[in-house]
Amino acid sequence: MRMNVQPIPSASDRINEIRALTARIVNKEILPHENELWSWRNEGNFAESSRQKARELRKGITEKVKQAGLWAPHLPEEYGGAGLSFLEHAYMNEVLAYAVGAASLFGVVAPNSGNQKILVKYGTEEQKRKWLIPTIEDGMESGFSMTEPDQPGSDPRSLRTTARRDGDDWVINGRKWFTSNGKRADFFIVMCRTADEGGEVDRNSKMTQIIVPSDTPGVDIARSVPVWGRDGHHCEIFYDDVRVPVENQLGRTGSGHQAAQDRLGAGRVYHCMNSVGQMWRAFDLMVERAMSREVHGGLLETKQFIQGFIAESYIDIQAARLMTIHCAEKMENEIDARTDISAIKIFVPEAYHRVVDRAIQVWGGAGVSGDLPLADMYQGARTLRLADGPDEVHKILIAKNVLKHYRTGESWDFGN
Ligand SMILES: Cc1cc2nc3c(=O)[nH]c(=O)nc-3n(C[C@H](O)[C@H](O)[C@H](O)COP(=O)(O)OP(=O)(O)OC[C@H]3O[C@@H](n4cnc5c(N)ncnc54)[C@H](O)[C@@H]3O)c2cc1C
Fold first, then answer.
1. Which of 2.40.110.10, 2.60.120.380, 2.60.120.260, 3.40.50.300 would CATH assign to domain 142-250?
2. 41 pLDDT exceeds 90?
């Protein structure tokens, strides 16, 4: 089924143009070839001929994406990106995410995309030349190494990996895990403690992000931690007396926490718009099946249980989408959106989880098979509820912001 993308009357001409161009590529170039593009991934079919065919298809599609001016929507034009505004990029995501896995065909691949954004904002000209441009132009790969097995990732200020100054070098010691893309990465951006836990500086100024080439002596990629039973290159890494020059430090000493917040804040809105696009796909698949599968003497669409699934999913998608767009509009207009970001970070993955769950139920056994994208979506939705800040942490943040506001003597203005 094609994604039905019509102009949005309240959106700008440019946003409607971007959505239409993206939908054309998704509908014409990606959806008809989904099985050839990704089948070897799902079926364990690693025949070289299948891989070769997938490579050729991907090359053809990325050429079309570039011709349409949609390549790397997260990057400014001066670095070869599409130079989209925040809102334009958010609206583009709901369309491209309809085709599961398509983001890579548009030049947005995590964790490279997040690292690229950090390098654009915090990198020196030399760092950009050495680490940013090659990830955009020459296929250099990267990882983001923050979470540790022995400390809670949901409280990044507690991290223990240290970087100690020794002359013109930083010397890094610590253990990380879930460093995605760890096996392929040419360098890691490593979150390090550069001030003592009980030291003078404030709680947010004790971390610094440092670029570490993966072939530096002392970097030991010990294993890939399987996720949902699969090897996804989320690696456990030991940093043992790893020595890099101080020029590899990103931003000023102590800016690591802020840089991580910058990375995650905008990223959460983009992830939520991706989730909306994937819910949209799950919904189309669910309705399509309900209208064609006959069970117990009637089409599924005639059963009220199934009608309930359709109605509840419609409500979930509308609510998730409108909340996310509202939050993106605030960010575009530089209005404080911290409470809204936490709200969508909780609501959207939960809604996504519910919608995919119902779609799987309607499809029966096929729903959990590799023939459909639903099983991948289901696992992705569940993972989102703990990655980028688990639900509980965001609930605490919402309550804190609301209570702080009421303490000033004002109630909440839901109109803004
Ligand atoms: C597929 C995948 C890819 C990842 N990729 C990366 C990566 O590239 N780089 C990287 O650095 N990390 C990565 N991570 C790690 C991820 O960011 C962390 O798992 C996440 O931040 C949670 O940290 P944690 O696992 O240490 O859980 P913990 O911090 O131990 O939290 C466990 C649970 O405790 C509860 N909790 C936490 N705080 C509170 C509270 N205040 N009140 C009540 N309950 C609370 C929550 O339910 C939470 O889920 C990835 C994880 C996954 C699954």
1. 2.40.110.10
2. no
Averaged over 254-272, what is the pLDDT? Answer: 88
Determine whether the shortest distance from the Cβ of 149 to ligand 1 is under 6 A: no
Q: What is the pLDDT of residues 103-118, one digit of tens each?
A: 999 999 899 999 999 9
**25-39 pLDDT, tens digit each:** 999 999 999 988 886
3-state SS class at 146: coil
Go through the chain and tell me how many residues it has.
Answer: 416
User: Is the per-residue pLDDT at 374 higher than 60?
Assistant: yes
**Minimum CA distance residue for ligand 1 atom 11:** 146
Domain 13-110 has CATH 3.30.70: no
| Residues 81-110, mean pLDDT to the nearest whole number | 94
Mean pLDDT of 15-22: 98
Element (H, E) at 172: strand 169-179
How far apart, in whole angstroms, are the C-alpha atoms of residue 95 and residue 90?
A: 9
178 lines ligand 1 (CB under 6 A): yes
**Residue ID of nearest Cα to ligand 1 atom 45:** 392
Decide: 227 in ligand 1 pocket, CB within 6 A.
yes
CATH for 258-407, options being 3.30.420.40, 1.10.1040.10, 1.20.140.10, 3.30.1300.10: 1.20.140.10
Pocket probe for ligand 1: among 178, 191, 346, 391, the residue whose CB has the most ligand atoms within 8 Å is 178
Q: Which two tokens stand for residue 155?
A: 């409280």
Pick from 30, 102, 101, 98: nearest CA to 280? 98
- pLDDT above 70 covers a percentage of the chain that reads 96
- Ligand 1 atom at shortest distance from the alpha carbon of 191: 11
Contacts of 31 (CB under 8 A, 6+ apart): 2, 3, 99
pLDDT of residue 195: 79
Q: Answer for the pair 210, 185: CB distance below 8 angstroms, yes or no.
A: no
